[in-house]
Fold each of these.
Amino acid sequence: MKVRNILLLALPALSSAYPGMMGASKEEIDAMLIEKRFEEEKRDPQIIAPILGSLLGTIRGLLGSVASAVDLNNKRPEPGFEFRAPGPGDSRGPCPGLNLLANHGYLPRNGKVTFGQVVQATARGFNMGADLATVLATFAVLTDGDIVNESFYLGSPPGKVGGLNRHSTVETDVSVHREDYYNGCGDNHHLSSRLWKQNVAIVARSQSKLFDMENMAQQYAANARFSQINNPYLYYFPFPMIVSLGAFAFYPNFFSNGTYGAGGVPNYESVSSIVGAEYDDRTREFKYVPERFPPNWYRRAVPYTAANALADGYLRIYPKYPLVPGVAQLGGPNFSVQTVLCDAYQGIQSIIPLLLANDVENVAAKITWAQSKITGLLGGTVLGCDRDTLSPTVPFFPNATRTGGPLGTPSAQVSNIGDNVYGKVYFRNAPTRPQCNPSQN
Ligand code: HEM
């Protein structure tokens, strides 16, 4: 019997288990069915386990498929950039792309990276457009790093403050395969086994059997709905929201073997290796292992730019389950890629006070630094963002001091906020409440 039929047989029971299902869209129902399937597997592994095996079998059938027209110059890793698992003290965090670049030596292996290194390495390793890398790296230095050295840590820096693990800055809720900061009790950076399984199931029951845009949009819809229902401190700001939506689109666009849209394939082999998800037959869970390029892999041949990421994020991912952010134009005639980018540009002002609200001199220095990086790209003539609208009083972050807001993040277990620890399974079950005891995960 096909997996889909098995899932559909469960429908009547599900409507009582998930009362919100009545009136739900097809995507939402599918996501709930998948979640239910995995719950059943937990209760009765003998009966259901073979189904997970067959799901994996279906998508593993695509092992080894490589883009048809590839340029050998795009093969990665290049000689001299061999994989080496991070050692103790090497900083790794929520971004699989940057973790991988450090594991292959395209970025410093200790995980302390500079602005310039990031722009260069993301282009060389994945062909990320310089504008996209600049916007991301600027916000990372600004909110999570150190502007004197233009640097930041990929996970937690020594001393545990800042780094990409810092919540509500670049790191955000509704991630692809990371749990929300609050419900994960501070663990917003390890690959979650249950979120990866959910994604695998979505891919396996789709026609394409790929981590393509349609399937990633379904993963987004399931995650957004889960966070909306279960996370009382879900906070979705314009800039982190862009990162979050963009990240769903990054899967096909950066992790495909070859160029997505031009013969490249975002198959299980490529994506699972790059994000570090390893299936463990014994536990029937996915272990989080260090991110690495799969064998015989080719990066995309053309840069993927900020405008590409915004268009994909907002037009192809977000409509599956809109969560209301601080993007005022949403739903109106002025909503466009340009207005969203300009919102991010203006958002610099409102992020500054989160960092150094009590140090006026430093605030001024940070604003000047960030504007010097981004203005050339987004301000003035390029996209026509209005520089004069920048104002520290723009209320981008209502209720910022509320617990769970950027000035009042909920408490988290210290042991959950450090650097990535690999070789373990994280979040076997969906954290509907804060999971503060790692043994519960
Ligand atoms: C240019 C500098 C970059 C910065 C500062 C950055 C930062 C981040 C951060 C903070 C997150 C966590 C977001 C969240 O909580 O959902 C993240 C997630 C992600 N990043 Fe990056 N990133 C960068 C480049 C890249 C590159 C080059 C790639 C791919 C080649 C990439 C792929 C991803 C993906 C797929 C996720 C989602 C992870 C998941 O939830 O499964 N990033 N990034």
Amino acid sequence: DTRIPIADALPVVEEILGWMQCTPGVHQLEVAGSVRRFRDTVGDVDILGTADRPGQAVAHFVELDLVREVIAQGDTKATILTDTGIQVDLRIVPPPQFGSLLQYFTGSREHNIALREHARGLGLSLSEYGITEIASGQATSYEDENAFYARLGMQFIPPEMRENRGEIQLALKGRLPVVLEQGDIRGDLHVHTVWSDGQASVYEMARAARERGYEYIAVTDHSVGLGVVSGMDADKLEKQRVEIEETMRRLPGLRILRGVEVNIRADGSLDLPDEVLAGLDIVIAGVHGAMNQSADRMTARLVRVLENPHVDVLAHPSGRLLGKRDPVQMDVSAVFRAARDNGKMLEMNAMIDRLDLTDRAAAAARDMGIPIAIGTDAHALHHLDYMQYGVRLARRAWCEKAHIVNTLPAPALLERLGRV
Ligand SMILES: [Zn+2]
Ligand SMILES: [Zn+2]
């Protein structure tokens, strides 16, 4: 299997896009393929652009520092291998064909096959260059994807939804879900500080959150039993409360939720006593050890946690680290039922090597009516920007604003958390 975690591909994509955007005469530039669809693993990286002088743009591309090997280079196209072993194709295309080609190279393959079948019913044939009327032979290219989808009689389909999971049928009826957008997010529900293993203070994190336009963040440092250098116990949570209250006075308009990421022990008990958890605004509970348990034991462990009245959110439910650690074994439907029956939330952890809930798990949670909390698990200021990945993952799961708790205004969120 040559697929790589998207965490490894994104820095490469960003570096290439940044470099190419500085190339004179380059206009449109877009990554296609599974990166654009935001799959959690990707194969090759495809980049499309338009340029006044394609040959010059291609020559500029192969000069990138990260190029280990130029596999092929032509007038409008080049293929390189990066120093991290990722294959990247750049295609400079004529502007009138940009939309058609972007749609084609974004895929997915299954989505495009289903589109082709639908088109045939309309007397049309599809190719990477556009849409051809079979009877007349008249071919049309598209500058943008909107017009391409419109010609097929359907709504524009967001790239994250192009997996042939029913999106074409809904788009034909004009009934695609209105999926989550970054602007819907009002706060981050999983943030660490120097009180545990984070790199920034409560104040720095809070200020960075306010700079991002948030109404609230939840400070959720690790509990003591995890064995990180400095974990939270009752005494430290009380001291942190003072700092949080001071910080809120310094940063009016931002609500800082007092929380904790309490560690789930091997038997499903928690690191902190109930009376300590009861005094907090939000409690997220996560598995960080004894991850190789049998499915039966892990399921019982998680169900026990979800039955604790003081727990609000199950953090990074599968425990996977993309490319490094497999998900834990558990009976997912039993765990999700326990979440639903006990009124708990499931976290969509947006940390780029977690992306946990996965798209399919999030879709299952959504269908069961379980609220999803997106948290970045930020351990540094710039990690707050991982929220964009959580949003894109939520779009893959067809989540709308109403499915995500941190789209709620602060008062409604606190009410939802039973803290009013
Ligand atoms: Zn954690
Ligand atoms: Zn965490």
